[in-house]
């Protein structure tokens, strides 16, 4: 199987405050879209390290995951080819804002939207997972982080030899 056919592993932070969810507005090949703070798992990092990093890069806030919300599969297009995504979504606590920290390239701004706002703007969502994660969060879905078992080298931030 060619590497291009393998699933892309992504992480997302589902952060709710007073009935509103923290989202980013970002440039995509399909135009401006709304997404959870999210991104790709990088080599040598655990899922938890990835979601903390992505949240900081896209929102300039610290993030402390408290639970696994769920695992979501979707299919999209990238460069005209079909791509399979596997998204690990985490809920947790939003931490300190790093004043003056630039947001990742392509991120226009952060905003807070209610579940009703997300439903009303479904055509602007980066993927159906954005809305589904908010629905699941509102329904109280939570799985303990102890379900995840990263290799000890990942927990220490070390890269394993292939």
What would you say this structure looks like, in words?
The structure is a single chain. By secondary structure, this protein is α+β, with helices and mostly antiparallel strands. The protein has one domain (3-149): Nucleoside Triphosphate Pyrophosphohydrolase, CATH 3.90.79. The chain is built from 4 helices and 8 strands. It has helices spanning 47-59, 115-120, 128-138, 152-155; strands at residues 8-14, 16-17, 20-28, 31-35, 38-40, 61-78, 81-97, 107-114. The strands form 2 sheets. Strands 5-1-7-6 form a 4-stranded mixed sheet, sandwiched between helices. Strand 6 (61-78) and strand 7 form a beta hairpin. The longest helix has 13 residues, at 47-59. The protein is globular. The mean pLDDT is 90.
Integer-rounded radius of gyration? 16 Å
Work out the helicity level: 10-25%
- In whole angstroms, the N-to-C terminal distance is 18 Å
CATH architecture: Alpha-Beta Complex
Shape: globular
DSSP helical segment count: 4
CATH superfamily: Nucleoside Triphosphate Pyrophosphohydrolase
N-to-C series of helices and strands: EEEEEHEEEHHH
Low confidence ranges: none
Strand line-up in the sheet with most strands:
5-1-7-6
Structural class, by secondary structure, is alpha+beta
What fraction of residues sit in β-strands?
Answer: 35-45%
Q: What is the class in the CATH system?
A: Alpha Beta
Predict the CATH topology. Nucleoside Triphosphate Pyrophosphohydrolase
| Largest sheet features | 4 strands, mixed
Number of beta-strand segments = 8
Tally of separate domains: 1
* Mean pLDDT across residues: 90
